[in-house]
Prior knowledge:
Blueprint: E1 5-6, E2 12-13, E3 20-25, E4 27-31, E5 37-41, E6 47-59, H1 60-73, E7 79-85, E8 90-107, E9 110-119
Antiparallel strand pairs: 1-2, 3-6, 4-5, 6-9, 7-8, 8-9
Amino acid sequence: MAIGFTDLTSTNRVPxxxxxxxxxxxxxxxxxxxxxxxxxxxxxxxxAQTFSLTFNNRPKAExxxxxAFFLNKAGVTGFNFTYADSNNGGExxxxxxCDDWSQTWxxxxxxxxxxxxxxxxxx
Length: 123
């Protein structure tokens, strides 16, 4: 599988280098009066993971296709995203949704887009 995701035109879209991942474990915590606390994972898939991607200085048509893909998925429908992962033999593919994106008009016919992908646990 190639790095990135496949849009509505069946074109693989590769984000700029510098992908950022953010991880937040979901836990239940019980605090006792003497400062003691206990924690347990909240659910089977208790790690919330997001990825911040950018597509900078691309032709207008490419950014239009990327934004159309995000609009089509509307933050509801999941899709596969593959990223480089040296810990896992080179690449990892996960199911994500994109419920936050923006577009920038840079100059002439060159635009940029940024998006946040959120890992989802579904088939």
